[in-house]
Amino acid sequence: MPAQPLEAVIFDVDGTLFDSERDGHRVAFNLAFTAMGLPDRWDVATYGRLVKITGGVQRLTRWFEASGHSVADAGRLAIETHRRKTTFIQDIVASGAIQPRKGAPELVHAIRAAGVPVHVATTGTRAWVEPLLASAFGGCFDVVMTGTEVADLKPSPLVYREVLLRAGCDPARTVAIEDSANGLISATGAGLRCILARNDYTREDATAGAIIVTDELYGPEVRTWFEHRLTMPGRSCG
Ligand SMILES: [Mg+2]
User: Fold this and answer.
1) pTM of the model
2) Final residue of a domain: which of 58, 73, 95?
3) Catalytic site residue from 12, 19, 179, 205
4) Which runs of E-coded beta strand occur in the chain?
5) Which CATH number covers residue 79?
6) 207 CA to middle of ligand 1, Å?
7) Structural domain of residue 64, as residue ranges?
8) Are the beta carbons of 159 and 145 closer than 8 angstroms?
9) Which of 12, 45, 163, 191 is the 20 to 30 A CA-CA neighbour of 155?
10) What is the pLDDT of residue 3?
């Protein structure tokens, strides 16, 4: 029996559509520490541990608390550091330093060319998410939900539920693409199937519930899966 055609595909941003963590967000956090006159710095390995905490403010709060600041001080420092970090990441995005993940443009194009809409569910901040998406994908994405609009970040399923609601699509005929365990839990919690395309920072993440686990975003397994479910002739991405 042929596979049921897809109604929509929902993408995560950080680590899925873009290689944005190590050379984007990490650098922006370090610039923010410097601008604040703080001694803190996150090297690649340290950031690899911290990236499991979703949300920049939450990541910073936990870091400052673990560094010996009082809860009140940690919260205040986190909010101010994150405000500056958002400005730095906007500058980094504008500089073109953050590139799409290998295979991401081809995968998005193949889905759009079959007439299937693509959406975004991220817990990143809208101020940098929108220009980042525009830099590599133009106006490809129909519904873009970010951490600026939703109260609970991944692994809560809220951001995926909001995309499904706004796009009006059936979760049984939609698939999510994620790079991390937090994202996988979020997507499956919203009733979605999820392809887990892990990267260097998420290679050891738990995979329970993923329909495909791969290190390649658009490798042979993912390509074949989509070929069986993208059947409509269609439009191309403008
Ligand atoms: Mg991610």
Assistant:
1) 0.92
2) 95
3) 12
4) 8-11, 118-121, 141-145, 174-178, 193-197, 212-214
5) 1.10.150.240
6) 14
7) 21-95
8) yes
9) 45
10) 82
